[in-house]
Specification:
It is a single chain. Helices cover about 35% and strands about 20% of the residues. The strands form 9 sheets. Strands 3, 4, 13, 14, 15, 28, 31 and 32 form an 8-stranded mixed sheet that branches. Helix 17 packs parallel to helix 26 and helix 18 crosses helix 25. The longest helix is centred in the middle third of the chain and has 25 residues. It is globular. The chain starts with 5 loop residues before the first strand and ends with a strand. GO terms for molecular function: exonuclease activity; RNA binding.
Length: about 725
């Protein structure tokens, strides 16, 4: 009789992030097993691995945990099938980080022996129309004003804008004269260190159109330095000790040096201007000028070598040279303006980048696999320069991984084994080819129009705003001189309170309470609405906003979420109780499997609530009835079904306690842009969920399926990813 595989993961607990290495650990063991010396992952366990029919990894390109919970109702299949979820550490280049830098998989169309200077890299004219540079700028040469960022583009890419709330106190360069195609260009670059305030400038360089250095100055940060980032900045504590120059001095000097029609050039110049706390209306950003598909960007080091033939940011040097970087960005802009889009597109930078990566890989292979050395002999060699990648390990065992994805999603060539132009085509290929492969990677995407960084920013704010509303309740009305302490005590029995304020704008006072967990807010609405508190019969309700109209539907679906099966929330615990005390108190409950006692992530102190996970749903239901009204150490307990699993609880806490520089108001305009296409986006997400459902149903029983929202490393910061996993059973669901 065929044994069924089983997956166990202790993920209810702390809800800590799973790293790329830990994920690779899981996939390696699932694909190779003990017979190939792969170890069980440290954070979960696969039982009967040798009976696995295959491994399928679905990667949702440029999507994060935000997407899953923003479109939670649309991801109907994902939330009902996969019983295990985990927060995933985001990665700038997800496929490369997952499968290793040293992959030797080539795109099928890549010429053998291609080098960065090969004439084979030049694009045929018939292909130019598809090049992102031609699509953006057209084929004809234009003056420099055609390549400066519009106000809208500056907003989308987080440039400091005059009058923007986030730029209060910023200094304007006052270069407000009309630009022309003969306006002077200036290259600008800064090095930053990390201080208690955030990123602060430690060095500034400015070069003129001839490349002459006009300014190269060390700057003393105003706040205490946390990290000098010497590896990248080249700045050390010793270098800054004698420095007297402050940011205000640099701002004054730049204002004097720049003519009124100056055009600043830089690579991701928004970061430099933000650190300088300066506003300049006319900029050329070379990271955007040399356009790529899907919102990706070329590095300055690569562009300098590929376009200018110059080596910059050499490893032998300590840190980057800002003058060198400013000059390189300036020359790149001048090259683009003088040669025009067609000449730049003909360089075929994507092919050059792929060739460069393949050259690096082949060098690594030479180190890893010297001629005449067997595998056992290599074990006695000194440590190699880079580890064999995960896909190479599969190849050693004779397994040929299937890679399906949309063309242009990954410049490294990892997902270009079989290329398709749409999610529908990818699905069709997957339905045909996945059954023939033991290990498959399927990469879907919402499309380039939905993965720009400003859309991520708007999405983040919408999710944060809705979570805040769901965690907030209003209670009242109360008498004029009501006892606030007794109100806090009564509502505190529902769970940990983050903030409590009295609303005085109304005829009679109300109280606004924001909880730390969703269950507490829901428990307050369910148990205290209509109750008598502080001498008044009160009404308890959540804020009434357009975004909250589907709150009850969302709460119901969260309760039914497969990951919350058999999990209940208990509040009203005394903070003096330890985990051991609670284990003892709850030991009489039948089929209790796990107890999770949340902690304040800053202080490390226990909260006055806990989560209990039971082996059977019926046992959880019985425990719920038994616990309500239960008195423990003189404190009356309240309980309900869980709404937020461990990884989500931690994420909610982090979102609520994030004190980002940009407040709610700064996203207003960006959110309007997002809402225009939100209906279309919801349809795409729903269709994507349907594609995954169709693919999942086609899988053999005992197939490990992992769905990854890899996270986003954008100009607005890191956005955590999300993983869902399970082993398909006879009923089409993932097993525990």
């Amino acid at each position: 009789q065929e044994k069924s595989c089983r997956l166990s993961a202790a993920l209810l607990g702390e809800g800590s992030e799973i790293s790329q290495e830990q994920l690779q650990e899981l996939l390696k063991y699932a694909a190779l097993g003990k017979c190939h010396k792969a170890a069980q992952p440290s954070w979960c366990r696969i039982y009967h691995q040798r009976h696995l029919a295959g491994v399928v990894v679905v990667v949702l390109h440029e999507m994060s945990q935000l997407h899953f919970y923003r479109f939670y109702l649309q991801f109907k299949h994902l939330r009902k099938v996969f019983q295990h979820r985990f927060t995933l550490t985001p990665s700038a280049n997800f496929p490369v980080s997952l499968y290793g830098e040293g992959t030797n998989l080539k795109p099928q169309n890549t010429p053998q022996g291609l080098t960065s200077t090969s004439s084979e890299c030049i694009t045929e004219s018939s292909d130019l129309q598809c090049d992102p540079i031609i699509q953006r700028y057209g084929e004809k040469k234009q003056g420099l004003t055609s390549y400066t960022l519009t106000l809208e583009e500056q907003k989308r890419n987080d440039y400091p804008i005059e009058g923007s709330p986030g730029c209060k106190g910023y200094i304007s360069t006052e270069c407000d004269q009309q630009r022309t195609d003969s306006s002077p260009l200036f290259g600008l670059d800064c090095e930053m260190c990390l201080t208690t305030k955030g990123n602060e400038v430690t060095r500034v360089s400015l070069v003129d159109a001839r490349g002459r250095c006009l300014l190269n100055e060390l700057v003393k940060p105003e706040s205490t330095v946390v990290n000098y980032r010497t590896r990248f900045s080249g700045i050390t504590k010793k270098m800054l000790l004698p420095v007297k120059t402050r940011l205000s001095d640099i701002q004054t000097r730049l204002k004097k040096m720049l003519p009124h029609d100056a055009v600043l050039v830089g690579h991701s110049l928004n970061s430099d201007l933000q650190a300088l706390e300066m506003i300049h209306p006319s900029v050329i950003d070379t990271s955007l000028l040399f356009a790529r598909s899907e919102g990706r960007r070329f590095k300055l080091k690569f562009l300098a070598k590929a376009v200018l033939g110059k080596e910059i940011q050499c490893e032998q040097k300590l840190g980057h040279d800002p003058t060198e970087d400013a000059r390189a960005a300036l020359e790149l802009a001048q090259f683009f303006i003088e040669q025009g889009p067609t000449k730049v597109a003909e360089l075929n930078l994507e092919m050059l980048l792929t060739a460069e990566k393949l050259a690096e890989v082949s060098q690594n292979k030479a180190v890893l696999q010297p001629q005449g050395c067997g595998f056992q002999e290599q074990l006695n060699e000194p440590p190699p320069l880079s580890k064999p990648c995960f896909l190479d390990c599969l190849k050693v065992t004779g397994q040929k991984p299937l890679l399906l994805g949309r063309q242009g999603l990954d410049s490294s060539g990892l997902c270009q084994r079989n290329l398709s132009t749409s999610n529908k085509q990818i699905l069709q290929r997957a339905l045909e080819d996945v059954p023939l492969s033991k290990f498959s990677i399927i990469q879907f995407s919402l499309g380039p129009e939905y993965i720009a960084s400003h859309l991520h920013a708007g999405l983040h704010e919408k999710v944060r705003s809705k979570l805040t509303d769901m965690l907030t309740i209003y209670a009242g009305p109360f008498e004029e001189n009501f006892c606030l302490k007794s109100v806090k005590k009564e509502f505190g029995r529902c769970g940990p309170i983050q903030s409590l304020t009295v609303v005085t704008e109304t005829f009679q006072p109300y109280v606004c309470i924001q909880y730390e967990v969703l269950e507490a807010a829901q428990l307050a609405v369910e148990s205290l609405n209509g109750a008598e508190v502080a001498g008044s019969c009160i009404k308890v309700q959540r804020p009434v906003t357009a975004a909250m109209l589907d709150c009850n539907v969302l709460i119901k679906e969260l309760e039914l979420d497969v990951e919350n099966e058999g999990v209940i929330y208990v509040a009203g615990l005394k903070k003096s109780l330890t985990e051991t005390d609670l284990q003892e108190e709850f030991s009489q409950l039948k089929d209790l499997e796990t107890l999770f006692l949340p902690k304040d992530l800053q202080s490390g102190k226990h909260r006055n609530c806990c989560f209990l996970k039971f082996q059977k749903s019926q046992s959880a239901k019985a425990a719920l009835e038994a616990i309500n009204g239960w008195t423990m150490k003189g404190s009356e307990l309240r309980s309900r079904n869980a709404l937020a699993p461990g990884h989500l609880w931690r994420w909610i806490w982090q979102m609520n306690h994030s004190n980002g520089k940009q407040g709610k108001h700064i996203f207003y305009e960006k959110m309007e842009q997002l809402s225009d296409s939100e209906q279309d986006l919801r349809k795409k997400v729903k269709k994507l969920d349907h594609h995954i459902k169709k693919l999942y149903r086609s899988l053999q029983n005992n197939t490990l399926c992992v769905v990854l929202f890899p996270g986003v490393n954008s100009t607005h910061g890191l956005q955590s990813g999300l993983g869902l996993m399970g082993i398909k059973d006879d009923e089409g669901r993932s097993t525990c």
